[in-house]
Amino acid sequence: MKPQYIALNSKQYWKTNIALFLGSFVTFALLYCVQPLIPVFSKEFEVSPATSSLSVSLATAGLAVSMIVMSWLSDKKGRKLIMTIALLGSSFFTCLSVFSTNFYFMLFVRTLSGVMLAGFPAIAMAYINEEIDPKHVGLVMGIYVSGNSVGGLLGRIIVSAITDFFSWHIAIGFLGIVSFLISIWFWFNLPNSNNFVVKNQRFGDMVCSLKDFLRNKRLISLYSVGFLIMGAFVSLYNYISYPLMAPPYNLSQTVVGCIFFVYLIGTFSSTFMGTMADKHGSGVILGFAIACMLAGGLLTLSVSIYSKGIGLALVTFGFFGGHSVTSSWVAKSAKTNRAQASSLYLLFYYLGSSVLGAFGGKFLLWQGWNGVVLLMVIALCLAMVIVLRLLLVDRQVERVVGS
Fold first, then answer.
1. Where in the chain are the domains?
2. Model's pTM, two decimal places?
3. 21, 26, 217, 326: least buried by Cβ within 10 Å?
C-alpha cells in the first residue's frame, strides 16, 4: 500500500510542524533549564562544579539509557501516545523538583524527568520520517531541531531571570506548569499517524536489531560524531557561567542567562544546514558545521567579552546545524527500524552530554576556562576525522560505481 504522506503546506503539515516544534521546545527547556543554575547550586548546596553539573548530566543520562526502551514501546503502542506521556511525565517531575531541599533528592527527580523525556526525541524523528514526504524530511527535521534551540534558549533565560528576582524554586515551577499546558495542546493537535504499523517485536529481538546497527560502520561513525559534538557543546555551556560571573566581567545571573539568546542562531542553522545537506550532501555540510564549532570554541579564549560572544554564536550555529544533519543522515542510513536507529544515535548523543559535560568540570578545576576549551577541541578534532573518513569512503564508492 502506498504511504499517505502529509502534504507540503497543508493544514496538517503546519499543525505537525507546530506540534513537533513545541514538543521539542518542552523537551529541551526542561532538560537544560538548570544549566545556568549550576553555580547557584554549587553555592547553595556547597558542592563542587562537577557535582553541581550532575543536575544536567543525570537528566541527560536518564534520557539516554531509557530512550531505546521508549522507542520499543512506541513501536508497540504508537508514536503520538508515547510522546505525549513523555511530555506530561517530565513536566510533572519538573514541578516536583520545586520541593527539593536536599541536592540529592533534586538529582533523583531530575533523573526521573530525563527518563520520561526519553519518550520524545527519537520517536519524533521516526514520526517525521514516516509521515513526511522523503523529499522534505531534511526541512521538517530542521524545523523540529530548531525547537531544540528555542526551548534550550527560553528555558535557560526564563529560569535565570526569575531566579534573580525570586528563587530557583519559583523559576523551575513556572516552567514546569507552562510545559504541562503545552503537553496537553500537543495531544490534541499532532495529527495521528497514517503510515505507522504496529510491531509486536519482543525485547530480545530489539536487542538483536540494535546489535546489527552497532555492526554498521557508517552508523557507529555517526553515533560517535553525535557523542563528540554534543559533549563539546554541553561542556562549553555548562561552565561558561563561571568565568563570566567572576572578575573581570562580574556579570549577574540574569545577564549570563541572556547569553543563551545566541541559541536563536541555532534555530536558523538547523533548518538552513538541513536544506543544504539535501542539496550538497550530508558529509560536506557536517564537516563545515564542526569547523564552525572549532573556530568558535577557540574564540572564547579571548579576554574580550565581544569575542567570547561571537565564539559562542559560532559554536551554537555549528552545533545545531551539525545535529540536524547527523540525525537526518542516521535516519537515511537505517533501512529498517528507524526509530531504534535514531534512539541509538540519541543514546550516544546524550551520553556525550553526560560524560563530557561532567568531565568538563575536572578540566575547569585543572586549567580554568582554557581546560574546558581544550576538552572541546579534542572532541571536535576527533569528530572531524570521522567525518573526513566517511567522505573518503563515499568518494571511493562513487568512483567504483562510476567506473
1. 11-190+202-402
2. 0.76
3. 217
